[in-house]
Amino acid sequence: MKTLHILSRSPEQPSAMDRCLKFSSKNDSLLLIEDGVYFALPSTLSKIKQSLDAANITLYVLEQDLVARGIHKQTDQSIQTVTYDGFVELTATHNKSSSWY
Amino acid sequence: MKYSLVILGAPYSTQSATTALSFTEALLKSDHQIYRVFFYHDAVHCGSSLSQPPQDELNIPAEWQKLKQTHDIDLVICIAAAVKRGVLDNNEASRHEKNGANLSSSFELSGLGQLVDATEHSDRIITFGP
Amino acid sequence: MTSNSTKARKKVLIILTQSPCSGSLSREAIDYCLAAAAFEQDLALLFTGDAVLQLIKDQNPSVINQKNLTKTLSALPIYGIEKFYVDLSSLVKYGINDNLCLPTIKVDANEISKLLTNADTILNF
């Protein structure tokens, strides 16, 4: 019964990520899209990594949004990037989604 | 699986409508079905037939219209949210004695009951926030 | 609209995050709830972040030419909606604890996680 959390706000608007992390459950997944992909930069990722690991939350990031923003080469190698096909797949394999903004 | 999408963001103001567009295109390539796409809040502007962006920019309303024409997906715009924001079909335009209607024929103006119906009959609902 | 099932089945959680006067989204969320109640959908509302501010009783938005959301909110129980959850940490953040316009169940982060887990569908307004 895993939830896919979808986050679209940049680290400059931290309340969306704060709520997302507070309200997710163990083994849920988090997909970063739109400006949310800036959380995949090493310096911003480090601020949330502990919370993600503690709850065993798998992090994904939408490739097109990374490339658009010119940061696809700087993102942490451990983060799984997905295309829109992968985005669809994630929504199918999780039984519901919650969008945080 | 049957999917419905709820889109809240205005075209061009945020990525909401284009993220949803790309997601829909990916869904259409997959084995899943689209039950309904429901445009609410500022996303009702996706239904305007009057949008004229510069030639080197994506025409977001037109892209949604193309999907309707090629795949016949159910594109529903919340009537109350639309009329309030000046997106009207012929019925609403004459009802409110307005000079013209601007809703693209690819969309249907309807009530929130359509969104309730979509939440009940879809396996997955994705919100594309504003 | 199909007529196969007249009774709603899904447990729907509406997650509200917007303040009352910042735009139309908070009202549009409540409009959805009214429509859903008319179809007897199994609804639960979660007020978190700035959305707890929607619950403050003595609002007077007419002074900024807006309609009063609390009038509609406080009528939701009449339409059969009973599950109003409010994020305790948001209430504490804003120093609001009583004088709310709805009978609410205060929940902490763990309880909210369970609300999400137990829902069949989530809508985010």
In short:
With 130 residues, chain B is of the alpha/beta class.
Question: What can you tell me about this protein's structure?
Answer:
The complex is a heterotrimer of chains A (101), B (130) and C (125). Chain A contains four helices and five strands; from the N terminus they run E-H-E-H-E-H-E-H-E. Chain A has a five-stranded parallel β-sheet with strand order 4-3-2-1-5. With 101 residues, chain A is an alpha/beta fold. The longest helix of chain B is centred in the N-terminal third of the chain and has 14 residues, at 16-29. By secondary structure, chain B is of the alpha/beta class. Chain B has a single domain, classed as Hypothetical Protein Ychn, Chain: A, CATH 3.40.1260.10. A five-stranded parallel β-sheet of chain B has the order 4-3-2-1-5, with helices on both faces. Chain C has a single domain, classed as Hypothetical Protein Ychn, Chain: A (3-Layer(aba) Sandwich), CATH 3.40.1260. Chain C has helices at residues 25-38, 69-75, 88-94, 109-118, and strands spanning 11-16, 42-47, 83-87, 105-107, 121-124. In chain C, strands 4-3-2-1-5 form a five-stranded parallel β-sheet, sandwiched between helices. Chains in contact: A-B, A-C, B-C.
How are the SSEs ordered, and which strands pair?
The complex is a heterotrimer of chains A (101), B (130) and C (125).
Chain A: E1 3-7, H1 14-23, E2 29-32, H2 42-54, E3 58-62, H3 63-68, E4 80-82, H4 84-93, E5 96-100
Parallel strand pairs in A: 1-2, 1-5, 2-3, 3-4
Chain B: E1 2-7, H1 16-29, E2 33-39, H2 60-71, E3 75-78, H3 79-84, H4 90-95, E4 108-110, H5 113-121, E5 124-128
Parallel strand pairs in B: 1-2, 1-5, 2-3, 3-4
Chain C: E1 11-16, H1 25-38, E2 42-47, H2 69-75, E3 83-87, H3 88-94, E4 105-107, H4 109-118, E5 121-124
Parallel strand pairs in C: 1-2, 1-5, 2-3, 3-4
